[in-house]
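Hey,

Quick one before I head out. I ran the complex with FE2/S2 (inorganic) cluster overnight. Inputs first:
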Amino acid sequence: MASKSLTRTDSGKTRRVIVVGGGLAGLTTVIKLCEAGVPVDLFSLVPVKRSHSVCAQGGINASVNTKGEGDSPRVHLEETVYGGDFLANQPPVKGMADAAPGIVYMLDRMGVPFNRTAEGLLDFRRFGGTLFHRTAFAGATTGQQLLYALDEQVRRYETVDVEDEKGILVKGEKMVRKFEFWDFLSLVQDDNGRAIGIVAQDLKSMEIDSFVGEAVCLATGGPGIVFGKSTNSVINTGTAASAVYQQGACYANGEFIQIHPTAIPGADKLRLISESARGEGGRVWVPKDAKERRRGKDVPEKDRDYFLEAKYPGYGNLVPRDIAARELFLKCFHENKGVYNDKSQKNELEVYLDLTHIPEPTLRRKLAGILEIYEKFVGEDPYHNPMRVFPAVHYSMGGLWVDFERREDGGLVRGSARNQATNIEGLYAAGECDYQYHGANRLGANSLLSCIYAGLEAGPSIATYIKGLTKSSFDVGSSVFEKAENREKANYQAVLKMDGKENAYKLHEELSIMMLRDCTIERHNAVLDKVIAKVDEVEERSKKIGITDTSGRANMGAQFIRHFKNMVVLARVIAQGARNRDESRGAHFKPDFKQRDDENWLRTTLAFYGENGNKSEVKYVREFDYNVAGKPLHATDKVDITLVTPRARKYETAGAASAVAATAGKDDKPGKDGKKETQAQP
Amino acid sequence: MAKRVVRLKVLRQDGPHAPETKRWEEFDVPWEPQMNVISSLMSVQKNPVTADGKTVAPVVWESSCLEEVCGACTMIVNGKVRQSCTALIDQIAPNGEVITLEPMTKFPLVRDLIVDRSTMFESLKRVKAWVNLDGSHELGPGPRQSQENQEEAYPLSRCMTCGCCLEACPQVNATSKFIGPAAISQVRLFNLHPSGKMHAAERLETLMGEGGVADCGKAQNCVEVCPKEIPLVDSIAQVSRQTTKHMLFGWLLK
Ligand SMILES: Cc1cc2nc3c(=O)[nH]c(=O)nc-3n(C[C@H](O)[C@H](O)[C@H](O)COP(=O)(O)OP(=O)(O)OC[C@H]3O[C@@H](n4cnc5c(N)ncnc54)[C@H](O)[C@@H]3O)c2cc1C
Ligand code: SF4
Ligand code: SF4
Ligand code: FES
């Protein structure tokens, strides 16, 4: 036993866990750890209140069924699994769907100003891939409101003294210590590879330091910036996940990148117009005539092609994102029917997203947050003009591989040290940086949920893990930490001395343009080979970067070079994974392999980092061994499909995503879309 | 046709203890459609050469969301405090005017356009801006709330701790202890919530002494610069009334 106390080592040191990342997943993990009496050091690139989760607009799913539609966690599970094209392990999805109503209630108690019904209950709206009103929302800035609520609870723990089991206060120690404007560089591992701390850099003073942790949890979000411009925040480079991958963590399903169909163009970022716009009744269309010159609002009904509604009468504008994005690409790119732009004199990769038929007060109450963004950045009034939108990289289904312990009935064993554990002992992962909940395609409003749920699992799981430790990280000799610290200091000094001809920002642009063009909506093997060759080239050239800033303070340039190099590593994982997977599933679509191929590809892509000479490479495996809490375990790429049997995905028919939904919906809402069928049995 | 350029004039300084490095530098960057201040600074990163041809270290700034919800990128653009990510070049310099960028002045400088706003987060701690939750375990739904209550709380809850209001407030300065409007408005928010209310007194007490709500000079500058249009003056008036009431009757009501 490391110690009988969870808060103190035998030698009297405060036992802390390190959480890197203060988005929804990280903050939830911190709260759960604090409730278990475990003090935390929380690291973040930006003040946690500015984490990327703040951008989420539309809402969070929970089958509370307040509208009497017959929704239930079972339906939520089925639709999530179906939406993800059966690539997700089902027990964690079940755990998440079952926990969802409780999560929304918890957030409600924390003070999230969710929209209300006339009776004072939580209001819910529709989102993609379902027929139910399942999405709780706070205007169109739900992510911000959720993040703030969790941030406030964590701030409260910053003021709470550490207390040991006997109720004795540990002087001068607070439950949470925040390290904001710190960049995670790497793990500190002991001789057995166990994660016992981290090395990080203060982004103001540029000082590099090591920190001890009984365990480390990464909740560092997604890698959208690998694709250059995306809907993501600029800090979403995936650098931390890439760093631990290079230290031996397994990265799973990296090739599954979600493209959101409705964003607005920008010089620095592609701003999202949330799916909630369609959830509230927004309609997608293009003019029937490709040469249509009239402005959107002047095009009469008869001259409009509502192509999603026409092709998918069952789910209409609310088909899942992979399908919507592909249809849009088909219309605009292959059929050249995108909205005609007078200035550029061509049909752009743009369609109309139309809300103008909805009364303005309703829009203001439910969608003001996103319409404000459109107004600000496009300079056009979306209340009276159909918006022009186009597809953008949005979310990574793939991420760090994490384990789970399955309960008899299919859910997870709460508090098992295996839940959210990576294959590096002592390293946990939660949130968008893990791969666990969405399979090949994420349904809208399921991410805020999965982030919080992952945190709810990670907290108790880590508490169990540290209870079982035989040796505290705080009792490991300081030389291990010094060594790790010195390695990172040397790396940093080397960056400061780079005097080549390449500019890191331009190199990033080159890589990301290719990733965006060739590794997103449609993927062709011959083209992917070129992408991989480009990754090779960029990796080579990245050794010849010239540093533009040698300042000892707030050196953004040096930091970017590090992040960029880590992005190149992830780009390879994404591109190579896409090259290998010869089938189409969810967000991964190959015109040359249009079918889903369960026989060969109903399996998780498991990637390990390797080096060959002075070149990085990806090693794909079908199985591997790992330890959790000293227990040897074995993982394979087999997907746990024990709860919902795979079947073909068909959103043409209402209720197809869930057999239960088709019948349940029938009793309560007969005939809304006429032909609800129960044929969608597995 | 000559390529259109955007001229930035940036107030730079290498660090708080290096006032001798304070200087204006100008940069010309190529114009692009839908460009904003951040994307023009990104352009400087790609080619950090001043308008008079000197290669310098690229300007540093803070940003994250790029859609005006995170509050990170606040700076003084053409003399006005605001988020730089929503400062569209075509709007702020439609005819190619020079764009000046300066760091906020009410917070300690880190470098160039980056300042340290940790006092704002400390203030949130001081006023106990949270609901005192029993725990995150399942306890069923929260208290029922009317649509009106939600509609009053929601705008207050959109405060992104950006600092514009503090920058604009004449009462916030190097010699005063005034906590500023943002934190006061958060007290209103939490005192409005059905369970937050139970700890209203504690919050009010944090605003009663020096640097509290009474230090507001009612200049109303704050409300004009708040990007989220938070009714800060209303909040201050409400909280001020609450503290007065608490001062007069607080002990009796306890
Ligand atoms: C525009 C937009 C709208 C969205 N809308 C919705 C929606 O309506 N519903 C929904 O369910 N999902 C939505 N999503 C997806 C969802 O917002 C994200 O998947 C989710 O917020 C990710 O949360 P997270 O906790 O995993 O990470 P993040 O919120 O991204 O937080 C990552 C944290 O890690 C820190 N970090 C990262 N790297 C390092 C490092 N090297 N060192 C130290 N700290 C580091 C960051 O500072 C940050 O604190 C949306 C996404 C976008 C882009
Ligand atoms: S009203 Fe009060 S808080 Fe607002 S700017 Fe004036 S003095 Fe400052
Ligand atoms: S009140 Fe407004 S100006 Fe002040 S910090 Fe909040 S959002 Fe910014
Ligand atoms: S970058 Fe977030 S507000 Fe501007």
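The domain at 5-115 of chain B is CATH 3.10.20.30 (Ubiquitin-like (UB roll)).

Talk tomorrow,
K.
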